[in-house]
Amino acid sequence: MKNILLLILFIACFSCKDKYLTPEIVQPLVGKWRVVAVEPVGKNEWQYVTQDGQYQFEIRYDGVVLSANGLPACCAPNKLNINGKTFKIEPQSRLPENPQCSLVNCVYCETWYMDLQDDVLTIRYCNGGVGRARYTKI
Questions:
Q1: Cβ within 8 Å of residue 12, ≥6 positions away
Q2: pLDDT tens, 90-123?
Q3: How far apart, in Å, are the Cα atoms of 130 and each of 41, 53, 103, 124, 136?
Q4: From CA 21, how far away is CA 17, in angstroms rounded?
Q5: In Å, how far from its chain's centre is CA 57?
Q6: What is the C-alpha to C-alpha distance for residues 134 and 31, in angstroms, rounded to an integer?
Q7: Alpha carbon separation from 114 to 1, 50, 104 (Å, rounded)
Q8: Domain ranges of the chain
């Protein structure tokens, strides 16, 4: 009987996939995003981005922001404020180091303020201090 209980417990522990479950608030953000427009500080006008190779990033299942090459994004936030709800990013699996980050001088923003409407994501960085950017899901 003990062996059966231990076997059930063992199977239950190893069949758990909690680290792969995406929190409901983050679910619509998971995937790759490409910038389509920017609004510089002090301007009330969107400037559309049309060149090839536009900035892209990815949001992982646990909210971690990755660069286009799949490594952790440089200057990434600790929190995402998604349509008024704050989500603290807590990596659920190991993150490799991004060697490019040693070359970047960050204006660090602890929280990215996100407005998600369908597949259009508008991000206000540093509570508006460095402008906004509009992305579409790819």
A1: none
A2: 999 999 999 999 998 887 789 999 999 999 999 9
A3: 6, 22, 20, 8, 20
A4: 7
A5: 8
A6: 15
A7: 53, 22, 23
A8: 21-137
